[in-house]
């Protein structure tokens, strides 16, 4: 009898039909996956994007047991999403489901095969990767000069910084005389409860900026975190035009400090509200 059971188990394993001893519905699994795997290992922005996708996945497929999920059910989910969101968003939702189910195989040992492997990946929107000409760039900068986001846009256009990198840039890391800046951080928005727990970590990945909280009821807090890639952490050259604008900005911020006195919260950021 023991040999018979063993043969059946081996057959099920080869055919990838072996059922997990502990069955769990997809909605519960996805919640655990976000908490156990995604939150500790991915950037806050990635966690938010995954959570957004999981919300839609759970609405359509959440009540199905992970080991019962079939390709046809995933196709129905894709077709439903195509009526609600853009092709690129459908593609992203499918990819998140596929990543999660790979984790169900590798990390949770709930299934032995990913049903998404048998589903054709939905196509994304066709990208329009056109670079601005020098004239278009100058037109944009002329328009933006009248807005509060002029300096960030200037850093995007002429220094190649990402949004989070320009938002995290601080004056101690800007060297006007040398015409260069050190890119060390990216500014992210963290869930407040998660940020509080960082106090218990020896070497936290993120440094919450608690002074950025305007209301006691706020659910998120800004935090200095790592840049997107290792290559992003570097010193960059600042063009003369950028240097000129940064000098003007320094004078404006100095005036704001004198005007507001102790009410001015000087956190050292280049890009900040007046």
Description:
The structure is a single chain. The longest helix is centred in the C-terminal third of the chain and has 21 residues, at 240-260. The strands form 2 sheets. This protein has a 3-stranded antiparallel beta sheet with strand order 1-2-6, with no helix packed on it. By secondary structure, it is mostly helical. The chain is elongated. The protein has helices at 2-14, 26-41, 44-61, 71-82, 87-106, 134-144, 150-159, 163-168, 192-197, 240-260; strands at residues 174-175, 180-183, 186-191, 207-208, 220-225, 234-237. The model has no long low-confidence stretch (mean pLDDT 90). It contains 10 helices and 6 strands. The chain is 49% helix and 9% strand.
Give the secondary structure arrangement, pairings included.
Elements: H1 2-14, H2 26-41, H3 44-61, H4 71-82, H5 87-106, H6 134-144, H7 150-159, H8 163-168, E1 174-175, E2 180-183, E3 186-191, H9 192-197, E4 207-208, E5 220-225, E6 234-237, H10 240-260
Antiparallel strand pairs: 1-2, 2-6, 3-5, 4-5
Helix pairs in contact: 2-3, 3-4, 3-5, 7-10
